[in-house]
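Bench notes, afternoon.
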Amino acid sequence: MSSSGVGGGVADEVARMWGELPVRVDWAAVAAQWAEAVAAARAVVVVPAVRALVAVSLAMTVMILAEKLFVAAVCLAVRAFRLKPDRRYKWLPIGAAAAAAATSSEDDEESGLVADAAAMFPMVLVQIPMFNEREVYKLSIGAACSLDWPSDRVVIQVLDDSTDLVVKDLVEKECRKWQGKGVNIKYEVRGNRKGYKAGALKEGLKHDYVKECEYIAMFDADFQPESDFLLRTVPFLVHNSEIALVQTRWKFVNANECLLTRFQEMSLDYHFKYEQEAGSSVYSFFGFNGTAGVWRIAAIDDAGGWKDRTTVEDMDLAVRATLQGWKFVYVGDVKVKSELPSTFKAYRFQQHRWSCGPANLFKKMMVEILENKKVSFWNKIHLWYDFFFVGKIAAHTVTFIYYCFVIPVSVWLPEIEIPLWGVVYVPTVITLCKAVGTPSSFHLVILWVLFENVMSLHRIKAAVTGILEAGRVNEWVVTEKLGDANKTKPDTNGSDTVKVIDVELTTPLIPKLKKRRTRFWDKYHYSEIFVGICIILSGFYDVLYAKKGYYIFLFIQGLAFLVVGFDYIGVCPP
C-alpha cells in the first residue's frame, strides 16, 4: 500500500471522528468573542493606563521645564550682577604680601622672608586614582607635578589599582622619574580593588604623611590641570572656613572628534555652566563631579569619609557633607582639560554608572535627607525634590516613557489625545534652555535631542536598576580612554617640553593574548533596533490611518535608534 493511501485513510478517519463529536466549533463566534475581549481590555486597561502615563509624563515635563527656567533665571542674574565666586566669598592670593616683602627686602633677610612666604601655603595632597591607564598616565602625572606650589607644601599621590602588570610598571617608573626631579610624589598600590575608586581614595588617606595635609585636590587619570590650578582654588578654602569643596569646570580636548563627543560636550557644558553655577549660587550645593575639585580634609572626615555603597561615591560624599552644614563653591573660570569617551561602548558604561548610582543613592538617603536637622527646610526640598527627584529620576524616566513610548503608542489609540503644548511648546523651551550651554553646536540641536532620547533607554534601565538594587547596580566599569589628549598641539615654546612617542618601553611580563574576532551580530545593539522598528511602524500607521501628524518625529526618532543600534555612532576602538 502506498504512503499516500495510508495518509488519506488517516485523514478520512479523523474527519469522521470529528464529525461525530456532539460539539461544533463556530470559529466566527470564537473570533467575535476574542475581538470583544480585546476591545474590553483595551477600553478598561490599555487606554486608561496610557492616559495615566500621558498625565504623569506631562506633569514631569512641566517639573523639568520649571527647573530649567529657574536655573536659567539664576544664571542670568549671576551674569547680570557679576556675582562671581570671588565676590560672594573672600578670596586673596596666598602668600602674596610675604612674597612681595621678600622681593624688596635686604639680602641678609631675603631667605627668611621667602621661607615665611612658603610657610603661608597650606599642605595640599593631590590624589590621582588610576586603573590600567596606559594611554593617559603620563599626562595626568606630568600636569600634577607641574602645579605651581611650594614643593615642600604639596604631596602628589598616585593611587594605582591597575591589574595590568605592564601598565603598573610604567606608572611606577613615571613616578620615579618625577621623584628624581625633586617632586614629592608617592606611588601607592593595594592588594585588592575593594570599593573601586572610593576604596582607593579611602586607603590613600590612611598614610601617615597625609595627616600633615589640610586639603585634597583630586584628578582622574585623563585630567590635566593648568599650573595655576591650586593658586586659584585653594584660597577659597583658606579664607572661608565654611567651604568644604571647590569644584572647577571640565574642558574637553577631543570634543570635535566625532558626533558622539560633540553631543557629550553639549550636555556637559550645560551641566557645568548652568546647573552647577545655579546650585552654587543659590544653595551652596551641587553634586561633586568626582574630579577637578579641591576638598577640605576636615569636611570629608566630618561627613564620614569615602563610602563604596554606590557607584557614585563622589555624589554620596557631597550629599553627606552638605547635610553636615558645609558649603560648596563652583569656580567656572578655572578649567581642567579632560577626555570624553569616543566609543559608544565606553559611553554606555559611563552613563549606566551615572544614572544607576544617583537613583540608588536617592533610595538610600531619601529618609535621611528629610530627617536632617542641620540644613534649612528649603535646602532639604532642593536636595530631595530638585536635585534627586527631578534631576536624577524624572529627567531619565520621562524622556523615554513620553517621547519613545507614549507618543508612538498614542498613534494606535484614537482615544488618546496629547495637548499641543505638551508635544511641541514645552519640549522646545526645555531644549532651547539646555542648548545655550554650547552656542557653537546649536546647529546640532535636533540631532542631539534625538540622540538623548535614544540614550534615555539605557538611563531609565539604569535608574530602575538603582532603585530596585538589582542586577548591575554595583557594576563599575572604568571609562575607556584612547589618549585623545595626545592629539592636541603641543607647546613647543617651552624648553622642558616632553615629547610623547609610541614605543614599547618594557617587555610584557605576561604574553599578550590575541583578541578574539568579534562576530558581526555581536556588534549590534538589539534593544535600540527593536525600539527603532516599533517607532517607525507607528510612524507608518500614523501616515496611513491615525493622521495625528506625529509621523515626522516618529520616523526620524526611529531612524536615530537604528543608527545607534547598528553602531554608527562614535569611533571604532583601536
